[in-house]
Amino acid sequence: MDQGGCPISYIFMQFCTMQNVAGLAVVGGLYAMCFVFAYFHSKKRAQALQDAQTAEAQKAQKPAAKAPAKTSAKTTSKKAKK
């Protein structure tokens, strides 16, 4: 195998020659495990991103709590005169 080459090219060559079945099984098993890990990790990451976007959207839709209305100085002075 060429040191600058891709390991997948080695696997394809082994499929054609079938000389090193044990090595092919080990490399193929490692590739399969990495693929499964990447698949499930990407699903978890996509779900986490979706949850974050949903929470952000809900936060944006929720109106902020309003402070109690303050009485103006004119209103209080009118009440005091009566």
Question: What can be said about this structure in brief?
Answer:
Helix content is 74%, strand content 0%.
Describe what this molecule looks like in 3D.
With about 80 residues, the protein is mainly alpha-helical. Helices cover about 75% and strands about 0% of the residues. The chain contains 3 helices and no strands.
Oligomer: single chain
User: What is the residue-mean pLDDT, rounded to a whole number?
Assistant: 76
List how many beta strands DSSP finds. 0
Termini distance? Answer: 100 Å
Low-confidence stretches: none
The Rg value, from CA coordinates, equals: 33 Å
- The helix-strand sequence is HHH
Fraction in beta strands: under 5%
Which bin fits the share of residues in helices?
over 70%
Number of helices: 3
Indicate the structural class.
mainly alpha
Q: Which descriptor suits the 3D outline?
A: rod-shaped
Major sheet characteristics: none
SSE blueprint and pairings:
Blueprint lengths: L6 H11 L3 H41 L11 H9 L1
Salient structural properties:
82 residues; mainly alpha; 3 helices
